[in-house]
Amino acid sequence: MDLLLSKLSTFGNALPGDITQGLIWGVLAIGVYLTYKILDFADLTVDGSLGLGGVVAVVLITNGVPVPVAMIIAFLAGCAAGLCTALLNTMLGIPGILAGILTQLALYSVYLDINGKANAPISIDKFPLVISSRYVTAGNEVIDIIRTVGTALIFVLLIIAALYWFFGTEYGMSIRSTGCNPAMSKAEGINTKVTTIITLSLSNGLVGLSGALLAQYQGFADVNMGRGAIVIGLAAVIIGMVLGEVILRKHFNFVGKLAFTAIGAIVYFVVLRIVMLIGLSTDNTKLFSALIVAIFLAVPYIQKSAKTSFRRAGKRSVSADASPTPEPVNAAGKEDK
Amino acid sequence: MLELINLRKAFNPGTINEKKALNGVSIKLEEGDFVTIIGGNGAGKSTTLNAIAGVWPVDEGAILINGQNVTGLSEHQRAKYIGRVFQDPMTGTAATMEIQENLALAARRGQKRSLRWGITRKEKEQYHELLKTLGLGLEDRMTSKVGLLSGGQRQALTLLMATLKKPQILLLDEHTAALDPKTAAKVLQLSDEIIAANHLTAMMVTHNMANAIEYGNRLIMMNDGRIIYDVKGEEKKHLTVDDLMKKFEEASGTTLNNDRMLLSKKG
Ligand SMILES: Nc1ncnc2c1ncn2[C@@H]1O[C@H](COP(=O)(O)OP(=O)(O)O)[C@@H](O)[C@H]1O
Ligand SMILES: [Mg+2]
Questions:
Q1: How does A164-189 read in b/e, with b if 16+ C-beta sit within 10 Å?
Q2: Is the shortest distance between the CB of B225 and ligand 1 below 6 Å?
Q3: For residue B167, which residues of chain A lie inside 8 Å, CB to CB?
Q4: Tens-level pLDDT at each residue, chain B (267 residues)
Q5: What is the rounded distance in angstroms from the CA atom of residue B255 to the CA atom of residue B147?
Q6: Helices (H) and strands (E) in chain B, counts
Q7: Chain A / chain B CB contacts < 8 angstroms
């Protein structure tokens, strides 16, 4: 009983931090939504562009660049990473997944070139960071906790508003149609290479921004901070889609989808906290994320194949077999021309 | 209006799968011509339309639209001159987007896409009226996703989209072949009406010889990547399906090998 209470109190104390972290990763997840859901492009650049955004922000801020400017440059650095992947894919014909892997790998070196070493610390005591985990732990003033969660929330809301506008414009609509039907889009005069380039850049820009926020929040950037980020992003997107469909049903529109992607990220971190309180070790968190994504991606497939499986057809055929054997069909099964 | 000069195209050149799909296709269409195209399986009918649309570059020859050489323009650059309806109803529309959004996309064919709002209120009213003319009740479902529509509804919508911004040339590639006979007849009728009402220049591939005779003012027959028969005006009007079969045997030395075409001989 005591143990349960203490775990509950740990959970409660960690909740504001988990929500904030979820919102910061929500920015990344919204970026993943743009490529994975809208453009139908599985973009693995994300694992590299998160750390890139983080280290760019940290290095700039520690060198005296104002925090907002540093964050804008982190966004642009992410855009540049996305641009690389997009050019490898559209101009050089490298398959999307491989193009993302190549950029991601190169970005580990770029990170080290920028920072010289794996870890890049930044202290809230020395710099006016926009967000820090220092203010969401137990023992903080309520107002500080609200301010921290609120800051992350404002970023997410502004991004959703901007994307709602952008994807409602003529250009945004041409991106949506590119993802949905490239053949039709070309027939409608849309340069699908350019729409792909813009979307991948925008997506990774958001990931870079997420990295800049995350580095400030945790007080450092690390060359490995993006390892597996795409999986967490996908988990958020998928959890968000499932929740959104259940909760909003018919009203699950574009804004809802973006909002639920961020909510999906929060749910991910809260659930992660719960399984860790139950006993999952930190070493196994990546195993956990991979499992979540694998399960959510597999469910629709299993549901579908459960309906039309050979095993079932075989079973059905046994009862049909009990009736008089039908004449064997001729080998071709259809008439000759 | 449209001129094709000695078009040649080989697929997979230099491999054992090499296929010379176009072997010198030349034709000149006048403004307002409505050409029906027939021919056996693999005769190069779709390949001809794809060459015009710029799905890939041709190996040789020239494509002129309204006197302008478009041979070097890519598919999306040519799109402003061309309206298309495909055989597969899934191909011509964006399934996850609304009916009105699909129309708005098509209304901007060939225009620069800006950061203005993608669909205006005035447009919505215009689309409402336009959809009414189809008589399919789509005007009341303008915010429905196109993926929810039947094949026939999608083809009718694609037809509207292809002609919303008047194309220099309308390309229809067996666009009723995937529909049930009743719906196919309706969509074909609609195509004819739209072509007449807008004085469009059009090319229509069909496997139905009776349709090929009935519709349009000109008929061409293709075989082995060439145009083997070209007939228009009065002469075309008096053609019969048997004439066409005979012509085919004369010109190609074989019998027509289009199974679907044979099935629909009686039309
Ligand atoms: N993209 C392609 N790649 C390879 N071969 C193709 C391609 N498109 C058409 N072909 C081949 O070119 C020939 C003509 O095809 P097509 O124009 O589609 O015939 P149809 O007259 O029946 O429409 C066929 O042998 C077909 O297999
Ligand atoms: Mg064809």
A1: eebbbbbbbbbbbbbbbbbbbbbbbb
A2: no
A3: none
A4: 899 999 999 999 999 999 999 999 999 999 999 999 999 889 999 999 999 999 999 999 999 999 999 999 999 999 999 999 999 999 999 999 999 999 999 999 989 999 999 999 999 999 999 999 988 999 999 999 999 999 999 999 999 999 999 999 999 999 999 999 999 999 999 999 999 999 999 999 999 999 999 999 999 999 999 999 999 988 998 998 888 888 888 877 776 665 555 545 443
A5: 40
A6: 10, 10
A7: 85
What's the CATH class of domain B2-263?
Answer: alpha beta
Q: Residue with the nearest Cα to atom 7 of ligand 1? A: B11
Ligand 1 contact, B151 CB (< 6 A)? no
Of the candidates A80, A44, A101, which has an alpha carbon nearest to the alpha carbon of residue A230?
Answer: A44
Ligand 1 pocket test, candidate residues B8, B11, B17, B86, most atoms within 8 A of CB: B11
Residue of A nearest to B162 (CA): A188
Beta bridge partners of B98: B145
Handedness of CA B130, B136, B141, B143 (dihedral sign): negative
Which of A171, A173, A191 lies at the smallest CB-CB distance from B76? A191
Residue of A nearest to B147 (CA): A180
